[in-house]
Each structure stands twice: as C-alpha cells, then as structure tokens.
Amino acid sequence: MTVVHVPGKNAGSIMLYALSTCIWCKKAKELLDQLGVAYDYEYVDLLQGEQKQRAMDTVKKWNKACNFPTIIINGEKCIVGYQEEEIKKTLKL
Description:
This protein is 38% helix and 23% strand.
C-alpha cells in the first residue's frame, strides 16, 4: 500500500496518515469523503520497510506522540485525532 489519492474539490493539500484498524481513522476518512474534498491517505500499519519508516518519520515530525489519525493540511497545520469541527474550520467548510 502506498499513498492513495481520493478525487474531489480542491481544499488545499490534505494528507491523512491512518491505521487500517482504527475507528477514528475511518471516521476521519469518512468525514473527508462527506465534505467532498480531494485528499491523499496512507495506511501506515500496512506499510513495510522503508515505506513504513518514511511515513512514521513524517508523522513523528508533526505529531511527536505518533497518534492516529494524523492529518497534515497544506504542509502547515497538523490535526491529530478525529476533530470534526477543527477539520471543517481549517478547510473553511
């Protein structure tokens, strides 16, 4: 598994780092789908080797505790956990 792109309206660069077994990650993904925005996501737990290390290094850079979901917006803001209102506010939706 690598980065998957979900098409939609442009709300900036949105990258979701998630775990395939995490209910909060699933809810964050569903919210982005409901909002109809384009975003990319990656299931970190399904990666191996260098790909997994790269993803974890990126998550750690933004979120020292490495909690999921981790959403990085426009390379400027990081939202950790499922925070519906914060996500909508940041995306101005």
